[in-house]
From TrEMBL, chain A:
This is Ger(X)C family spore germination protein. It comes from Paenibacillus glycinis. Residues 26-191 form the Spore germination protein N-terminal domain. It is found in: Membrane. InterPro entries: GerAC_N, Spore_GerAC-like, Spore_GerAC-like_C, Spore_GerAC_C_sf.
């Protein structure tokens, strides 16, 4: 009996302490949290401007609420927004961070580090550059994307609106680029579109967290397939035909001789013919695809070498050849000297549902 | 008058249904005693008459006739005589030499027929179920198991009020140490009185009473009982209880039915997997709702988070209160539908359906999603085998709901850990609850 009493007392003490010490009164239900999907960041006169796109639930459906504040830090701005709202702002669901072009040119290092440090922002969050002022852009978003709260993010979602000519870069990749000697990233650039959603303008070359140049969407496609991202589905337009890339594979071979890096790149593309103009032969289509891609690659490589921004991660293939002390000079010393032998092998897997004439 | 009869008359003086009739058998006076509510006196007398006539014709001596009629007993054994009378036997006392015979009379039909099971449904299996009569039950098991290795031990428990229990086991497959332990416990505590299974498990078997999961696995299907016997478990029958108690009970009894084996193997595996998933969902779903809605919404996809937030607009209570409230109503509905007679039962189902289905949501007391979660929980709770198991499962989900409300998704893990630890701590005389019953002749897959 005594033992039972003792046990009962112990148990109730444990349960009591559980209730008293757990801190569960701080839990907020999902309907009392605001879950911003997109955050826009700009820097004007040393003041951060933060714009949050928050899907608001209502009886009818989902409305988009755009709120902006300025602050000395991004966090201060977010706190100001949270103060002014009836619910608490919870950045856990942030999917997309939009940065103004000017701010990207000045350098993102500080904010990327703080995003990485913050516990409530996922390192998986996609980053993009907005090629206009944030306010008009978000005004446009609010007026044209209301039926669904996540439209902007869906444009970058791989199982939704993503296209192979768009680069897809996460915050952690930018962070890696800032701290790595041999790899940079490309960040997609967008702008409000005319009819409905957004215009995709290509990608920004990033060097040490700063935007240095741009590449076109076509070059981004090549960049994606070079990095092993699926380039499937893209229609390549030429003078005579357009083809659908079904599968691409890349092989690299690196050689380092007398302080000059050499790289052999072999890309194998399996394509299907979608559209032709006049009479073309498969030989001609093959030749044109190879030519056009080689030209594009050369153009992109030229930009990479002149801007010293290694978005293709070419330095990765020479890490074993260059001592660590000199590796920090990869971008400035070795990358401009890099010789690339680029070959494309095209296989026309099928002619579509009809034969080529 | 016969001393034994006198003693019985004194003992049952307040019972109107006790009779002591004086008769003459082969020129000697006898007294027939018994309860006319338990035995059919007219038919019994006719039977007796036939015996006596046959004895007269063949010239059988009286002592031989006594032996033919039934068990001859000593006049001093009044306890035995009393028990025989109470179990519906006829006591025949010979006045001249004072000897007694306990005879099996024609009983009054007080037992129901062997019927299909009521609490358990059978899918492609034998439809018999156990009944109240312990002899019928043992007989049914013998029909299922045509082997000379089935052993039956019967014990009368209690002094003031006697309960008959029988222990069945399959010799050669059962762990005899366990059987000796069981028999030892029954023998040791046979003077204690039992009225229900709680008392059986505490007073006779010596199991602790604060357990969530019974040490007896119950079944009312002879096929299942026979299968348990084949696997080396012991089966206990209690007179007047139409279920077989299987000891030791094991975790896998909750998921595996023997009649599953009448289906092709892949289908059997599918069914068993369904039951496992059902049990898991019952325990986890309510907790998951609470955790995802109030503690860790970041786990959800954004689209899901928004639509959940939308269903919760304007709901006054936090998720945990909402959940506990609705679970409580659901428990009430389940309990009420068991309690009510069959012809009023549908009313409860209907009223409950209205509450759960529409009214609560329209009144903005709980969210739509919660109703879906509740329905899924209740349905999956019923996939497992045996009502007593689903009860333990129903209780254990509250642990997870509370832990989830405090610690979120991590709390679900902690709650599961607590439940697993508890289940793992259970054992029956050293046989662990989560163990597999593995005997040498056992077929695979449970």
């Amino acid at each position: 009996m005594k033992r039972t009493l003792k046990r009962g007392a112990g148990l109730s003490a444990v349960v009591g302490l559980l209730c008293a010490l757990c801190g569960c009164w701080d839990n907020r239900d999902i309907d009392h949290r605001s879950l911003p999907v997109v955050m826009g960041v700009a820097l004007h006169d040393d003041l951060y401007e933060v714009v949050l796109q928050i899907p608001e639930t209502s009886q009818k459906g989902i409305d988009i609420r755009i709120i902006s504040q300025t602050g000395k830090t991004i966090n201060q701005a977010v706190d100001k927004i949270s103060e002014r709202m009836e619910t608490s702002v919870d950045l856990l669901h942030l999917k997309l961070i939009l940065v103004e072009t000017e701010y990207a040119r000045e350098g993102l290092t500080d904010s990327i580090s703080s995003f990485m440090r913050a516990r409530d922002i996922s390192p998986k969050t996609i980053i993009a550059i907005c090629d206009e002022k944030l306010d008009p852009f978000f005004d446009y978003v609010a007026s044209s994307m209301t039926p669904k709260g996540t439209t902007l993010y869906d444009c970058f979602e791989k199982n939704a609106g993503w296209n192979p000519q768009m680069s897809l870069t996460r915050i952690w990749e930018v962070y890696r680029s800032i701290h790595s000697y041999t790899r940079d990233v490309a960040i997609p650039i967008i702008k409000s579109g005319r009819s409905g959603t957004i215009d995709y303008l290509g990608s920004a070359l990033i060097k040490n967290g700063k935007m240095v140049d741009r590449i076109s969407p076509e070059e981004t496609l090549l960049f994606n397939s070079f990095n092993g991202q699926s380039a499937q589905g893209k229609i390549e337009v030429m003078d005579h035909a357009s083809v659908l890339i079904l599968r691409s594979s890349v092989r690299h071979r690196s050689k380092f001789a007398h302080g000059t890096p050499h790289l052999d790149v072999r890309i194998t593309l399996k394509v299907s013919i979608v559209e032709t103009k006049g009479s073309v032969t498969s030989k001609l289509v093959k030749k044109e695809v190879e030519e056009i891609l080689a030209k594009r690659f050369d153009g992109m490589l030229h930009k990479v070498q002149t801007q010293e921004s290694d978005i293709l991660g070419l330095g990765q293939y020479f890490r074993k050849d260059i001592p660590r002390a000199q590796l920090r000079n990869w971008r400035t010393e070795y990358l401009p000297k890099l010789k690339v032998d680029f070959k494309i092998n095209t296989i026309i897997q099928n002619d579509g549902n009809t034969k080529l004439t | 008058m016969h001393t034994l009869i006198q003693e019985m008359k004194n003992k049952f003086s307040g019972d109107d249904d006790f009779f002591a009739l004086e008769e003459t058998f082969m020129d000697s006076r006898v007294v027939l005693a018994g309860f006319n509510t338990l035995l059919d006196i007219a038919t019994t007398k006719l039977g007796l008459q036939a015996y006596i006539e046959a004895a007269v014709l063949t010239g059988t001596a009286r002592d031989e006739l006594k032996a033919e009629l039934g068990e001859v007993c000593d006049r001093s054994d009044s306890a035995k005589a009393r028990l025989s009378l109470l179990t519906g036997k006829l006591l025949i006392c010979f006045e001249d030499d004072g000897s007694c015979v306990i005879m099996e009379p024609t009983p009054k039909p007080l037992n129901r027929a062997i019927e299909p099971p009521i609490n358990e449904n059978v899918f492609q299996g034998s439809l018999n179920s156990f009944t109240e009569d312990i002899h019928a039950n043992i007989g049914i098991v013998r029909k299922q198991l045509l082997t000379d290795n089935l052993r039956v031990g019967s014990y009368h428990i209690g002094t003031e009020e006697t309960t008959k229990i029988s222990l069945l086991y399959y010799e050669g497959r059962t762990n005899m140490e366990f059987i000796h332990k069981l028999v030892g416990q029954i023998q040791k505590n046979r003077s204690r009185q039992i009225e229900n299974l709680q008392q059986l498990s505490k007073k006779i078997m010596g199991f602790p009473s604060w357990v969530l999961i019974s040490k007896f696995s119950q079944t009312e299907l002879p096929q299942e009982a026979a299968n348990f016997l084949r696997k080396g478990r012991a089966v206990l029958f209690i007179d007047r209880l139409p279920i077989a108690l299987v000891v030791p009970s094991l975790l896998w009894d909750v998921f595996f039915l023997d009649s599953d084996r009448n289906l092709p193997l892949p289908l059997m595996l599918f069914l068993r997997a369904l039951r496992l998933i059902g049990a898991w969902l019952t325990v986890v779903l309510p907790g998951l709702y609470v955790a995802l809605v109030s503690v860790n919404p970041e786990v959800l996809r954004i689209e899901m988070a928004i639509s959940i937030a939308q269903t919760r607009v304007g709901i006054p209570y936090p998720a945990i209160i909402e959940m506990i409230l609705m679970l409580f109503i659901l428990e009430l509905i389940i309990e009420a539908s068991i309690r009510l007679p069959k012809n009023i039962g549908p009313t409860i189902t209907m009223v409950g359906g209205i509450i759960l289905g529409q009214a609560v949501v329209q009144a903005k007391l709980v969210s739509n999603l919660l109703i879906i979660i509740l329905a899924a929980t209740t349905i999956s709770n019923s996939t497992i085998v045996g009502l007593q198991h689903s009860l333990s499962l129903r209780i254990s989900k509250y642990v997870i709901v509370i832990m989830a409300a405090i610690y979120g998704v991590l709390g679900i893990l902690e709650g599961l850990l607590l439940i697993c630890a508890y289940v793992a701590s259970l054992n029956t005389y050293g046989i662990p609850y989560i163990g597999f019953s593995s005997k040498k002749d056992e077929i695979k897959h449970g």
